[in-house]
Design a protein that fits this description.
- The complex is a heterotrimer of chains A (about 550), B (about 500) and C (about 475).
- By secondary structure, chain A is mainly alpha-helical.
- Chain A has a domain at about 255-485.
- Chain A contains 23 helices and 3 strands.
- In chain A, strands 1-2-3 form a 3-stranded antiparallel sheet.
- Chain B has about 500 residues and is an all-alpha fold.
- Chain B has a domain at about 280-490.
- In chain B, about 75% of the residues lie in helices and about 0% in strands.
- Classes of the chains: A mainly alpha (about 550), B mainly alpha (about 500), C mainly alpha (about 475).
């Protein structure tokens, strides 16, 4: 018998804690109030990440042998994820209605969280896959929480793509594992290079992770699901959950080169295309969703280009985007013009950071990202600030137009402070991490050339925004590609003609045969026939014997 | 030796008693005779098992002057099967052929006829003389025809007359063959004939005898007399007719080909015999499928089941070297004979019970009988399993042995017949089974005592047990087995 | 003891069967005690044997019938895998059935055949020779027929007829194959693979095809699966038994035996019959799922799902690589656990809420939380959601397919995952998300029905969560493959 585990239990506790909170609503008496526990769920993870994500653990008997350990990129993302979840959780705990459905929400929120943390901690592909499945599939409950038609419709698209992604991912992992004959992530990753079906496996992984990470053209669920989910849900979806796809690519895509071009091209397409398409949206959450697709596009470009700053960039984006989504929620709850202005200001600062205003966290992230990606891509990254400014500026206008819902909540200030803290961290944390995470000199962001390079695209974007405001922008429903797909026509395909089961033979011919037999039997009964048959038989036997002997 | 004689004389004595004794004592005397004969048959089997074939020359005269009786494994096994069926029929007939149920004539006539049939059957199993066998066959035929006609209904008498006509034609052919043989060799003893000098008339003699015996065995296409004769008789009589009577002529056929004249086995003739058997299997099955009355279904099933046995002619000796046994096909054919006898008797006895209970054996009238009389339903189902050849029944063992021989000798087409026959049997027996086991029970049937219901169940269980405990019967049948059974014709 | 134990195992269900037939209709307590006693005893024997076999003990009992017809009962690791599944699930199904039927009519008959059916399954698992396998295979057919027909209404009788009409030709094919093979090789024992050199490849291919047709009818291989959805007319415990333990499993088990113990993986590959079998299995997987998608009745949908899922086992055997075989074998257990959970729940929905059709399930999640939760676990396991049971099998099958050089199987698994999701997720959606129809009500305050479902659902989670432990089904399957069939 193996030992139950070996190593430090800390990574395990990080995952177990949210799961334990997740089962609280199962008890009927606690169901209604379980929502209050939401902000507590990611706290151990936060502490663990701040401690540098130390320790590893192996459970030989659990599943197919669970191994938990955080890599360097993972620790950064783990901390960001925990932070976003904590703030969003608090927001949810304060603003959402209590009741049975809140219980369900709590349970799956915690499951999603555990999965989201798990993808950073998994060291074997099965644990990774389980965590990924948890974060993908359980998040469906966050999307459909409101049970509105839009939410359920978005949920349908989401679950379809999520299951597709799961299937693609599993297949890809199998291809790697079959070659590696091992389940360690590192070994599997290395095995793709030699596997006979390696390219297919990598392709499937890209598709699987791409769905999660909002890669064009698999991003269609994202602009549907994010606006439909409750604000807290959108915040974690856009800030944290999409990063699960990213970490998957970082952990599992091999060093080979073939797939990189694909990521770069699709990433660029997303980075610019989605940002521009965001202008066709009226719902600020939808605009933000397209912005997420765009930012994730940039991240994909970075992954494809082999940039070292992926996690660093993702860290900033996660927190900033989480804060922006929560701002939308705050705006809906803002009752006084002062509050509205405060929210707009907060959102504005986050927007500036994301757009890459020099000396903000976002600018640092971009600088770090540009390192070692080549001139062309570097230019593209610079240019992306134009579209980012454009779409997020458009978001601010949409946010300002957002009608308030007259719902007074007592902790408005506290919540605002928390969100402001999150945004502030987005702006500041990159500074703190700069020395450790980026191989650039400390003063690099202060260099005038660097500042100028960050500034001019923003100005260009502002000009474009001013122009765009004068245009009559179209108003399309979210979901771009999907809206133009003839989904209704697919339905009859499933309704194949249904034959009756278990019919082995047709009755009529059999009955006719039996009737003929009966007639023949009567005929055999006639004595002339029977008698001559008898004599014939006797003589025939005699003849046969005669001729044979 | 005593057992052999007892098996022949006890039923005859009982038959006389059933005629001569006063009314009240007749049935008990007949039952006593049945019990004693059963004991004698079992005893004979034990003796054969322990000491090998038992031979008896009447009056101490050796053949060719005298007539020899010899009980080998085959004869003794058939004797035991006959005794079991007869005893069961006698027990059932106590209820069914009581004068109050069946009328005074049938109530009187059934017992002596049955016992006479038993005595002559036993004689057929041990006789080694072709003429003696002719006499025995005639006696069997006459008592069988009388049993068909015993109810006195017009339909029964017509069927009996038709049976008589066919049977007499068969007898004549057989007798002609016997005469030719005697003229050529001066002996009719089977063992002596095996060592005879071949004569030119042998071919004709064998052809005539074979054709005659085929009629009596009701092989396709000479089976037409059988279904109506069997279904027109009272059920206990049907049981005897279907389970036992054709087996006597069949045994003679086997002895003729395997023991008396194996040297005349022409491949074409063997093929023809087996082909007729195969056609019987299919034809009987199809016609059974087309019947609406239980007794007719069961009767046509006899036609089909008898067909299997004829596959032995080309298959005998075809087991090949890879097998752990010899004479598989031959033993399989005998197994089929035995298990069919037990199962078929059980089925007719069940049909008899239904006739008494419901006054009809139409399938539409039998719906839900299993609910009213569960033991009969169970008995019919078990017997069906044997006839379908499903394991672990005797029918399965028979088919398994025959099929193995077919494959081992490369004649797998016969295996096709076996498989198709099994499926047909399943099809035609499914209908009565479905009816019997249907949910509804339209008319409350007449009460049937459980002891009566248990009789067919006992037979059906025996037919299954024959497969479950097949190693002893298998060994038993090898006692005194003719060489061609293992080596092929 | 070594000869007595297999017999004793058989007797634990054969004796209750024999006695139950003759019990009066209303002696419920005695009958239930007999049934449960037999089940518990069998379970205890098997647990004892598990330890003994792990220590290297061997059990064997032989009954010669006619020469060449040897009934051989033998305990090997594969037998033990199947038999522990059937014994465990039999025990649970017995509890369920007792609660399900209560004091309805004709129970002595039902439980008699019920036990007989399990006896046949036990015998099938323990069969050490081809012919004893066939004998118990037939016994299984015969003993399940009355169970299918139990309600004796028109659909049941039709179902029973259809079942017979499929099963018997299947048996004929199987017998044909066995005899054809044995006529050249002599009696085949599973311990020593027969020497196939006496037969030419064409004949061997034909024999293999006949074998697969024979066992494939029971395993529900398309196009031999027609009886399975029809048999849904039977009461819920019967469906559970049919789909998870006895009949369908017997077919799948038969495929495994034929492939590995009669032909052997190398011979199968050399004959080139593995790939066609894998294709048939794959087609079955897809076709079953597509048909399941079209069904409105819960049990019908589950039935087609069985058609699809059982072919995973066949697929595993056909691919003939060690990992695929592990996947197939472990699915034997996993599918059993999941499917029996689903059927238990379907029965509870029918009994406690009167719901037979999928659209009747709207909002039942709140009314019948335990049942709905168990159903959800079973369904998610079927889809292959990690870390539930179905995922483990699927993962191993996928790896095995790659190992065997048949990557196209991945596409099949992928498609199947999708279709499974497509026909199970809407049910879950209805259960938990849609509002209760007016007038609909149900509850699951029936411990005899719910507890077995909860146990199997928990097992579905457990065998997936603890798959890597040596005592899990996966551990056992790995042991079987590495010890018995390894290269």
């Amino acid at each position: 018998m193996n030992a139950l585990y070996s190593g430090s239990l800390a990574p395990f506790a990080v995952l177990l804690w949210p799961l334990l909170i997740g089962v609280v609503p199962v008890v009927p008496r606690w169901r209604d109030t379980a929502l209050r526990l939401l902000p507590l769920a990611p706290l151990p993870a936060l502490a663990f990440a701040m401690a540098g994500a130390p320790g590893a653990v192996v459970f030989p008997d659990l599943m197919l042998g669970v191994e938990l350990a955080a890599g360097p990129d993972s620790a950064l993302l783990l901390g960001m994820t925990a932070l976003v979840w904590a703030v969003a959780g608090w927001y949810g705990a304060q603003t959402m209605a209590r009741g049975r459905e809140a219980g369900i929400f709590t349970g799956f929120w915690c499951l999603t969280l555990a999965g989201n943390l798990g993808v950073y901690l998994a060291a074997d592909i099965i644990t990774f896959y389980v965590a990924f499945a948890a974060v993908s599939l359980a998040a469906w409950f966050l999307v459909v929480h409101d049970r509105t038609k839009a939410a359920l419709g978005a949920g349908r698209v989401y679950i379809t793509l999520a299951v597709l992604g799961e299937a693609a991912l599993l297949t890809g992992l199998m291809i790697g594992a079959a070659q590696a004959e091992d389940l360690q992530i590192a070994t599997v990753r290395a095995a793709f290079t030699d596997a006979p079906l390696g390219p297919l496996g990598v392709g499937l992984l890209i598709a699987g992770f791409g769905i999660k990470a909002g890669m064009v053209p698999l991003h269609v669920w994202l602009p549907l699901a994010h606006p439909a989910a409750p604000v807290a849900g959108s915040a974690v979806l856009s800030g944290a959950i999409v990063k699960a796809g990213l970490i998957g690519m970082l952990l599992l895509l091999p060093e080979a080169t073939g797939w990189r071009m694909v990521l770069v091209v699709l990433g660029l397409l997303g980075a610019f295309g989605a940002a521009l398409w965001g202008l066709t949206q009226r719902n600020p959450k939808a605009v933000l969703a397209y912005s997420t697709v765009s930012q994730m596009g940039l991240l994909l470009v970075l992954v494809g280009a082999g940039s070292q700053g992926v996690a660093y960039f993702a860290l900033h984006h996660g927190m900033a985007k989480g804060a922006l989504f929560l701002c939308v929620g705050m705006m809906m709850l803002a009752t006084s013009p002062l509050q509205r202005r405060a929210v707009l200001g907060l959102a504005g600062s986050a927007v500036l950071s994301v757009a890459g205003l020099p000396l903000t966290g976002g600018a640092l992230a971009k600088l770090a990202a540009k390192e070692g990606v080549g001139d062309m891509l570097s230019l593209a990254l610079t240019l992306s600030s134009v579209t980012t400014t454009l779409v997020l500026g458009w978001f601010l206008f949409r946010l300002a137009d957002l009608p308030a819902k007259p719902a007074q909540i007592p902790q408005w200030r506290g919540l605002f402070a928390a969100i402001a803290g999150l945004a502030a961290l987005a702006l500041a944390l990159p500074w703190l991490l700069w020395p450790g995470a980026v191989a650039l000199p400390r003063g690099y962001p202060f260099q005038p050339a660097t500042m100028l390079e960050g500034l001019w695209p923003m100005l260009l974007g502002l000009v474009a925004l001013a122009l765009a405001r004068r245009l009559a922008l179209p108003d399309y429903p979210p979901g771009d590609v999907l809206v133009f797909l003839p989904t209704q026509k697919l339905r009859p395909v499933l309704q194949l003609p249904v034959g009756r089961q278990g019919r082995l033979y047709r009755k009529r011919p059999v009955l006719r045969l039996l009737l003929m037999c009966k007639l023949a039997e009567r005929w055999l009964l006639h004595w002339p026939i029977a008698g001559s048959a008898l004599m014939g038989a006797a003589l025939a036997f005699a003849a046969m014997v005669w001729f044979a002997v | 030796m005593t057992a052999l004689v007892a098996g022949l004389t006890l039923p005859l004595l009982a038959a006389f008693a059933a005629i001569a004794l006063p009314m009240r004592a007749r049935v008990p005397a007949a039952l006593l005779g049945a019990g004693l004969t059963l004991a004698a048959s079992l005893w004979l089997a034990v003796v054969v098992w322990q000491t090998g074939p038992v031979t008896l020359s009447l009056g101490g005269w050796q053949p060719p002057i005298g007539i020899a009786l010899r009980a080998d494994g085959l004869g003794a096994a058939l004797g035991v099967m006959t005794a079991l069926v007869m005893t069961a029929v006698a027990l059932a007939a106590r209820h069914e052929m009581a004068a109050s149920v069946a009328g005074p004539r049938a109530g009187f006539g059934f017992w002596p006829l049955m016992l006479l049939l038993w005595a002559t059957m036993n004689a057929a199993f041990v006789s080694r003389d072709l003429f003696n066998l002719y006499v025995v066959l005639e006696l069997i035929t006459l008592s069988a025809v009388a049993l068909v006609a015993i109810s006195g209904k017009a339909e029964a008498i017509a069927a009996a007359l038709r049976y008589l006509l066919f049977a007499l034609a068969g007898s004549l052919l057989y007798l002609a063959g016997v005469v030719l043989t005697y003229a050529a060799h001066g002996t009719l003893d089977i063992s002596l004939l095996a060592a005879r000098m071949a004569a030119p008339s042998d071919a004709l003699a064998l052809g005539l005898m074979t054709a005659g015996l085929l009629v009596k065995t009701a092989l396709f296409p000479f089976h037409v007399w059988l279904p109506h004769a069997h279904s027109a008789a009272p059920a206990p009589a049907s049981a005897l007719l279907s389970a036992l009577v054709p087996k006597a002529s069949l045994l003679i056929l086997l002895r003729l080909w395997f023991e008396a004249m194996p040297d005349l086995a022409a491949p074409a003739a063997l093929l023809t015999l087996a082909s007729l058997g195969a056609m019987a299997v299919i034809w009987g099955g199809l016609l059974a499928l087309a019947q609406a009355r239980l007794k007719l279904i069961v009767a046509y099933s006899t036609v089909a089941q008898l067909g299997y046995i004829f596959l032995v002619f080309p298959l005998a000796g075809g087991d090949g070297g890879a097998q752990v046994w010899a004479a598989g096909a031959w033993t399989g054919a005998i197994f089929q004979t035995l298990s069919h006898g037990l199962a078929k008797a059980a089925m007719f006895l069940v049909a008899g019970i239904y006739l008494v209970a419901m006054g009809s054996d139409r399938l539409s009238d039998l719906r839900g009988m299993a609910r009213a009389l569960p033991m009969t339903g169970f008995a019919f189902a078990l017997a069906s399993i044997t006839l379908m050849g499903l394991p672990p029944s005797g029918g399965f063992t028979a088919k398994y042995l025959l099929m193995t021989a077919a494959f081992a000798s490369g004649q797998w087409a016969w295996a096709l017949v076996l498989a198709a026959g099994g499926l047909l049997a399943a099809a035609y027996l499914y209908r009565p089974l479905a009816a019997i086991f249907a949910r509804e029970s339209a008319v409350a049937p007449r009460a049937i005592p459980r002891s009566w219901q248990a009789i067919p169940l006992g037979l059906a269980v025996l037919s299954v047990a024959l497969g479950l405990l097949s190693s002893v019967p298998f060994e038993f049948l090898q006692i005194g087995r003719p060489d061609p059974a293992a080596e092929g014709l | 003891m070594t000869t007595a134990l297999p017999v004793l195992l058989l007797m634990t269900s054969l004796l209750p069967a024999g006695v139950t037939f003759f019990l009066a209709q209303d002696s419920h307590a005695l009958r239930n005690a007999l049934q449960l006693g037999g089940a518990v005893l069998k379970l205890a024997l098997i647990i004892w044997m598990l330890f003994a076999v792990a220590d290297g003990a061997a059990y064997e009992a032989e009954f010669p019938l006619a020469p060449g017809l040897v009934v051989l009962l033998r305990v090997d690791a594969l037998a033990l895998l199947f038999i522990s599944l059937s014994a465990t699930l039999w025990f649970l199904t017995t509890i369920y059935a007792i609660a399900y039927f209560g004091t309805k009519a004709e129970l002595s008959r039902f439980f008699g055949f019920f036990s007989l059916c399990v006896a046949a399954t036990t015998g099938l698992a323990l069969s050490g020779s081809l012919i004893s396998f066939f004998i118990f295979f037939e016994l299984l057919t015969l003993s399940t027929w009355p169970l299918v027909a139990h309600k004796q209404d028109k659909p049941s009788l039709r179902a029973a007829r259809v079942y017979f009409a499929y099963a018997l030709p299947g048996s004929a094919a199987l017998l044909w194959a066995i005899i054809w093979l044995e006529s050249a090789t002599g009696p085949v024992l599973f311990t020593e693979p027969p020497d196939l050199s006496g037969l030419d490849p064409a004949a061997l291919r034909a024999i293999f095809a006949l074998f697969i047709i024979g066992v494939g009818v029971k395993a529900g291989l398309v196009p031999l699966h027609g009886w399975l959805p029809a048999a849904m007319a039977a009461p819920a415990p019967v469906s559970a038994l049919l789909h998870a333990v006895a009949v369908v499993k017997a077919g799948a088990f038969g495929v495994v035996r034929v492939v590995y113990d009669v032909f052997g993986a190398e011979n199968m590959t050399a004959l080139g019959v593995g790939v066609p079998l894998a294709i048939v299995a794959s087609f079955t997987i897809i076709w079953g799922s597509v048909r399941a998608l079209q069904q409105d009745e819960i049990k019908k949908r589950l039935a087609f799902s069985t058609v699809s899922q059982v072919s995973y086992i066949v697929l595993g055997a056909a691919l003939a690589s060690p990992l695929a075989m592990i996947g197939g074998l472990v699915h034997l257990i996993h599918q059993g656990l999941m499917k029996i959970t689903l059927f238990f729940c379907a029965g509870i929905f029918d009994e406690r809420a009167g719901v037979k059709r999928i659209d009747g399930l709207n909002g039942m999640g709140a009314q019948m939380p335990w049942t709905s939760a168990c159903f959800s676990i079973g369904a998610l396991g079927m889809i292959g959601l990690p870390p539930l049971a179905g995922f483990v099998s699927k993962f191993y099958l996928g790896l095995g397919a790659l190992e065997a050089g048949a990557p196209w199987v991945l596409a099949v698994l992928l498609a199947s995952t999708f279709l499974n999701a497509a026909y199970f997720l809407p049910i879950l959606y209805r259960l938990w998300f849609l509002p209760l129809a007016s007038g609909a009500k149900g509850d699951d305050r029936a411990p005899g029905l719910v507890v077995p479902a909860v146990v199997t659902a928990a097992a579905t989670v457990g065998v997936g969560m603890l798959a890597a432990s040596p005592i899990s089904p996966l551990g056992w399957a790995t042991l079987i493959v590495t010890q018995g069939y390894g290269p």
